[in-house]
TrEMBL record:
Gene Ontology BP terms: translation
Signal peptide: 1-18
Cellular component annotations (GO), alphabetically ordered: mitochondrion; ribonucleoprotein complex; ribosome
Top-rank taxon, per record: Eukaryota
Protein family per UniProt: Belongs to the universal ribosomal protein uS3 family.
Cellular compartment(s): Mitochondrion
Keywords (A to Z) from UniProt: Mitochondrion, Ribonucleoprotein, Ribosomal protein, Signal, Transit peptide
Keyword set includes Iron: no
Lineage, broadest ranks: Eukaryota, Metazoa, Ecdysozoa, Arthropoda, Chelicerata
Protein name, UniProt field: 28S ribosomal protein S24, mitochondrial
Length: 167
């Protein structure tokens, strides 16, 4: 009986369990995601949206996409994944169609059946080309998503006008 007890006490599993201890190290609550690293000579320009940390969203600024993911679609299902995929497609489409014209992030708002795309663009574009791109984008996205798409754009003379702070 004593030999059986000694073998159970010296088994590898019991040795591992016996050597476990409670860790008392400091908690690492340092969040790094979504923050921009400072440069030595403060030469990196940041916009207002980039300057605000992720935990300050909805306190100082709003979200870049306003989803209605919790609404039911025609099949009576939650369409969160479809909305995220559509937003990804819209951003890629805007990046390809409006290449190097958007200065800010593309803001996507959904109001019932209407998709509103807004942002800030540079004024170095001819007015004819601007109206063509707006009409083309609204028509193509309306045809693809089977709902009306509207664009709300603001313009600025230079890219450096939207710089909020240098880090």
């Amino acid at each position: 009986m004593a030999a059986l007890t000694r073998n159970l006490l010296l088994s590898p599993i019991n040795m591992i369990l016996a050597n476990r201890a409670l860790s008392t190290s400091a908690i690492c609550c340092k969040a790094q995601a979504g923050r921009f690293k400072r440069t030595r000579n403060r030469s990196k320009p940041l916009t207002y949206e980039q300057f605000n940390a992720p935990h300050q969203i909805h306190h100082r600024k709003s979200w870049n996409t306003w989803n209605t993911s919790n609404l039911l679609d025609a099949d009576d299902g939650i369409r969160a994944s479809q909305t995220a995929l559509e937003d990804f497609f819209i951003r890629k489409f805007m990046f390809g169609t409006w290449h190097r014209i958007f200065v800010s992030d593309v803001i996507i708002k959904r109001r019932h059946n209407l998709i509103v795309i807004s942002g800030i663009i540079v004024q170095n574009l001819q007015v004819r080309k601007l109206y063509f791109l707006m009409g083309y984008t609204e028509e193509m996205l309306s045809y693809i998503f089977k709902c009306p798409v509207k664009m709300e754009l603001q313009s600025t003379p230079e890219r450096k006008d939207i710089v909020f702070k240098y880090v």
